[in-house]
Design goal:
- Mn(2+) binds at residues 79, 81, 115, 140, 339.
- One of its GO terms (molecular function) is metal ion binding.
- Keywords: Hydrolase, Manganese, Metal-binding.
- It comes from Scopulibacillus darangshiensis.
- The protein folds into 2 domains: 10-158 and 275-365, Zn peptidases (Aminopeptidase, 3-Layer(aba) Sandwich); 160-273, 2-Layer Sandwich (Alpha-Beta Plaits), CATH 3.30.70.
- The chain is 31% helix and 28% strand.
- The chain is built from 8 helices and 16 strands.
- The chain has helices spanning 10-21, 81-96, 120-126, 184-202, 240-260, 280-294, 312-315, 348-365, and strands at residues 27-29, 36-41, 44-54, 103-111, 135-146, 150-151, 155-156, 160-169, 173-174, 209-218, 224-225, 228-237, 264-273, 277-278, 299-300, 320-328.
- The protein has a 6-stranded mixed β-sheet, sandwiched between helices.
- A hairpin with a 6-residue loop joins strand 1 and strand 2 (36-41).
- Helix 2 (81-96) packs across helix 8 (348-365).
- The radius of gyration is 24 Å and the shape is elongated.
């Protein structure tokens, strides 16, 4: 009911901190201003496993009518992070009550700011939450996957998530005399059209790449050719080689079309979250745990997703596995996509997530 945006999770992290303090056998700390970590050290020595839940919300006005609908105007949990937090709190409570069964250590990482680059995961890593940690796992509820299905994906799971901004600088003039100007709108339109050739003609057709222009701003009067046009967009890829090639090819097109028409340009490319790549050994452990709990029929082997996730910041340091958990239920009307004003989850999926976290962690540490 009280969602908070990225890098603003003051009350959320305080609630999590106090809740964890009410559990037994946990060492609870605040590694960064808006995050929380709890350590559960088992009775016998072994490996160290971390598990992560993100806690932030999105700047969206909620249109649901639940009893627990957002009380913060313009902010809602439209991506299931409240569910991730609930599942890991549940797992922490049960595991903390069974300390004698733990070999090694489990660290519960409640991470802020997944939704806003550069992301809270990077900040937590820099704060040392992974020091001495061998592996990490995490869950994500998906309204695109039916409740009862659990995703098991080997290798890449999410895409590299980058953005670019291009400003095309022409020469303004009167709309009645286009020959005396250098029209940045016409040039920008060619740039947008030519971008599609990167995917269809410049790369191996078996490689995955999405380039989308999502903003186009130019002019403010109907009878004036503006001085400049600014475009922004999103670039999604899996291969680091393709990621690097995309930057070069986008700027190459910008340089070509502007040069051909006597314009100039300013280009900026921001590398966002890297691809989440699941470790094969850990994924097999998770697969075995899921199979033991729910049976093989519930497992969903699927292709990777084009979404971005800053869980990748943890995976740059240690091997891990990220697990999609089905939370869609058409019978209950739970069908809206993530980041939608009516997004919600089938709360029965929370039980699935708790069971996966507990059983996977014990299997990995064993």
């Amino acid at each position: 009911m009280h969602p908070e945006l990225s890098f603003q999770e003051k009350k959320t992290s305080a609630f999590i901190y106090q809740t964890l303090l009410s559990f037994e056998n946990l060492e609870v700390t605040r590694p960064t201003e808006y995050s929380v970590m709890a350590r559960l050290i088992g009775e016998s020595p072994g490996k160290v496993l971390a598990m992560r839940a993100d806690i932030d919300a999105l700047p969206i006005m909620e249109e649901n009518d639940f009893d627990f609908v957002s009380q913060s105007p313009g902010v809602m949990h439209a991506c299931g992070h409240d569910g991730h937090t609930a599942m890991m709190l549940g797992a922490a409570k049960i595991l903390s009550e069974n300390k004698d069964d733990i070999k090694g250590e489990i660290r519960f990482l409640f991470q802020h700011a997944e939704e806003q680059f550069p992301g809270g995961a990077k900040e937590m890593v820099e704060a040392g939450v992974l020091d001495g940690v061998d592996y990490i796992i995490g869950l994500h509820l998906f309204s695109t996957i039916p409740k009862g299905e659990i995703g098991v994906i080997y290798g890449p799971l999410t895409a590299n998530d980058d953005t670019f901004e291009l400003k095309i600088i022409g020469k303004g003039g009167h709309a009645s005399a286009p020959d005396t100007s250098i029209d940045p709108i016409a040039i920008a339109s060619q740039f947008v059209s030519n971008l599609q050739h990167i995917v269809s003609r410049k790369l191996d057709p078996l490689e995955r790449l999405v380039i989308s222009v999502t903003e186009f701003h130019a002019g403010n009067a109907v009878n004036i050719i503006p001085e400049s046009a600014t475009l922004s967009g999103s670039v999604r890829s899996f291969s680091q080689d393709v990621r690097g090639s995309a930057v070069q090819l986008i700027e190459q097109i910008a340089k070509g079309v502007t040069s051909a028409h006597g314009a100039s340009y300013q280009f900026n490319y921001d590398y966002g979250y890297s691809s989440v790549v699941n470790n094969d050994l850990l994924t097999k452990k998770v697969e075995d745990a899921v199979s033991e709990i729910f049976g093989d029929k519930c497992i969903r082997y699927g292709p990777p997703m084009m979404g971005g996730e800053d869980f990748s910041a943890f995976l740059k340091k240690i091997p891990g596995c990220f697990i999609p958990v089905g939370a869609r239920n058409e019978t209950k009307g739970i069908v809206h996509p993530h980041h939608h004003p009516k997004f919600t989850i089938d709360e029965d999926a929370l039980n699935d997530g708790v069971k996966i976290l507990i059983n996977a962690s014990l299997k990995i540490l064993d």
